[in-house]
């Protein structure tokens, strides 16, 4: 349930009073959420702000990201056990390509803005404290020690979560995506 005491992006766009009394607004815009009219209107509004700051979160492990997304879609929450999944190789290849294209699109879109790109695996997962200090510095905030409120929920390795994992490994063996199917790489996640 949203906290009604906080202004929404819609109320900021429509009210000069809300704009003048609001010091900062933060929200998450996922890579696939540019499509609706309200989201486009919101983004167009944000682009008019002189002090806009963008944090662009990327993922190295696209398979891990995809498995999390599929589990969320099927279970409506991230922490709901570890049901085994079947993943279509062609669908996964399309998804990998789409993600990378959307990341490049976002980089071009953010060109010229105050933007900070951070990678989930390299920065937040493996070096959380340093990453958060960097983000706070980028946002011009006083540096504070913060602790994560969420934890990584994909505890099982991919080969235990995905029914056709070996089929996927063979399918992607000689591609630029093969590193996502390496047991050693997976163990680092």
Can you offer a commentary on this structure?
The protein is mostly helical. The protein has one domain (45-188). 50% of the residues lie in helices and 6% in strands. The protein is built from 10 helices and 2 strands; from the N terminus they run αααβααβααααα. The chain has helices at 9-14, 16-21, 37-46, 62-75, 89-110, 120-125, 128-139, 158-161, 165-172, 183-188; strands spanning 53-58, 114-119. The chain has a two-stranded parallel ribbon with strand order 1-2. The longest helix is centred in the middle third of the chain and has 22 residues, at 89-110. The protein is globular. The two termini are 31 Å apart. Residues 184-189 have low confidence and may be disordered.
